[in-house]
Amino acid sequence: MPRANRHYIPGHAWHITHRCHKKEFLLKFNKDKDRWLWWLFEAKKRYGACIFDYVITSNHIHLLLYDKGTEEAIPRTLQLIAGRTGQEFNQRKSRKGAFWEDRYHATAVETNEHLRQCIVYIDLNMVRAGVVDHLSEWGRYTGFNEIQNPKKRYALIDHGQLISLLGLRDLGDLIKSHAAWVDEALQQEKNCRDPKWTETIAIGSKAYADTIKEKLGPLFLKRKVEGRGGQYELQEPSAPFYNAGNTFPWRMNDPDFFSPFS
């Protein structure tokens, strides 16, 4: 089977979402969440993955990465994490079958106000689900706590790159601003699910959405850019579009990667 086309564009942030197979609660135990985190750390060491935020729930994950232009860093990162997590789970449980849905979704996010909003959206995931009252209660399984309390060892979040892209002064400014963004969202009850963060190709200004559309090439020229008030979205097609590899080009589906446990 041919490999899917890679459409990550250097210099952009990407919000990744990936669900467990049939939305099963395959990540409900801490040992499995810990292994996912371990392989994320390994991906950072091996491929230079630039990580901005993450949250691990019982049946899906959110991961915010930045493409620094390191060749194949993002697809290799996702291949390693998902592949090894699924293999280890199946081996331990003497289980056969897919661990993940066959496709993960990637949304390009403009690195300004929209990046801030995306971080808050990811952070509030477990509050939206009604599992915790405050995201800090989700412990090591959310990037919120690492942004607020930077690690000296085994750090995942790239605070320096995040500070630069958000236009902040320093680490103290990031910690203070980040806490304020989350508190404001909680106070205003802005914790409802918003499909634009998980079902579109790109989010940002109109100029940004148009730029992503152009960079993705001729296959995307008919995709609609819709929005208002400074926030625009490059929409997915209303009907599934398949390329020659029989995959959604903006969803990185790698058949070779899934073969060990599918």
CATH architecture of the largest domain: 2-Layer Sandwich
Q: Helix-strand pattern, N to C?
A: EHEEHEHHHHHHEHEEH
The CATH fourth-level homologous superfamily of the largest domain: Transposase IS200-like
Shape: globular
Structural class: alpha+beta
Put the structure in a nutshell.
The chain has 262 residues and is α+β, with helices and mostly antiparallel strands.
Task: Provide structural commentary.
The protein has helices spanning 30-47, 73-93, 113-123, 125-128, 143-148, 159-166, 171-187, 196-199, 206-215, 255-258, and strands at residues 13-19, 50-56, 60-66, 105-109, 202-204, 225-228, 231-234. The protein is of the alpha+beta class and 262 residues long. It has 2 domains: 13-177, Transposase IS200-like (Alpha-Beta Plaits, 2-Layer Sandwich); 200-251, no CATH class. The chain has a 7-stranded mixed sheet with strand order 2-3-1-4-5-7-6, sandwiched between helices. Strand 6 (225-228) and strand 7 form a beta hairpin. Helix 1 runs antiparallel to helix 2 (73-93). The chain starts with 12 loop residues before the first strand and ends with a helix.
